[in-house]
Amino acid sequence: MPAAADVVASALSPGAGATSEPAPLKTLQELSREAADCRLCTLAETRTSVVFGVGDPQADLVLIGEAPGRDEDLRGEPFVGRAGQLLDRMLQAIGLDRKRVYIMNTIKCRPPNNRDPKPDEVQACNLWFEQQLNMLQPKMICLLGRVAAQTVLETDASLGSLRGRWHDYRGVPTWVTYHPAYLLRSPQQKKKSWQDMLVLSNRLRG
Ligand code: URA
Is position 32 within any domain? Predict the structure, then answer.
């Protein structure tokens, strides 16, 4: 993700700023409340909710999708539609559920007609994304689908070439797998997605 990040990371580091008393660090809940009023990009005009993220703030594993869809925009929670139900089953297959991981998206507001997020929307939302990941401090990240993978890893590489090996996102081991919505359209790929879930499970338990 592009650079506003570094500014945020240094602002978050203990002792940042000129005063002798370092500012208290924000909690995830406080950040979520701030994000709920966000008007940093034009998606604020068409969204119903800011879909911040859900799950255990102490989770070892953070899963990151592309952007909220219609169901998520209405409910204010990521991955609650059909793709989300499949994601729940994928997690169950390795003994996890959405309360034991943390689920979020690269951007927090639904793009009209579910189009791909635009670069300026990703850039604006990066303010929340970076702070959120800094607070979560996951041991592992799983990127769901091409758009999330290309956005977070800042690459144009295909999903096929990114899948099947570990990446490093700011020191956090990061795996790329298929988006559950794609698996609903292409169920023949579910076997490969199962292999990905096993890779995550083995590393989590290892
Ligand atoms: N697809 C995504 O990428 N994220 C969601 O939250 C829902 C569907």
Answer: no
Within-domain flag for 33? no
| Count of structural domains, the chain | 1
Q: Which atom of ligand 1 is nearest to the CA of 144?
A: 3
The pair phi, psi for residue 110, each rounded to 5°, is -70, 125
Say if 60 falls within a structural domain.
yes
* Domain encompassing residue 194: 40-205
Pocket residue to mutate for ligand 1, from 48, 66, 151, most atoms within 8 A of Cβ: 66
Would you give the DSSP letter of residue 83? H
> pLDDT in tens for each of the 206 residues of the chain?
654 444 344 433 444 444 567 666 789 999 999 999 999 999 999 999 999 999 999 999 999 999 999 999 999 999 999 999 999 999 999 999 999 999 999 999 999 999 999 999 999 999 999 999 999 999 999 999 999 999 999 999 999 999 999 999 999 999 999 999 999 999 999 999 999 999 999 999 98
CA-nearest residue for atom 7, ligand 1, is 79
Looking at residue 117, which CATH number applies to its domain? Answer: 3.40.470.10
Does the beta carbon of 138 lie inside 6 Å of ligand 1? Answer: no
Q: Ligand 1 pocket, 111 CB below 6 A? A: no
Task: Tell me phi and psi for residue 27, to 5 degrees.
Answer: -90, 165
Pairing of strands 172-177, 167-169: antiparallel
180 lines ligand 1 (CB under 6 A): no
- Amino acid identity, residue 115? R
Test site for ligand 1: of 179, 182, 183, 184, most ligand atoms within 8 A of the Cβ: 179
CA distances from 194 to 16, 84, 124 (A): 43, 16, 34
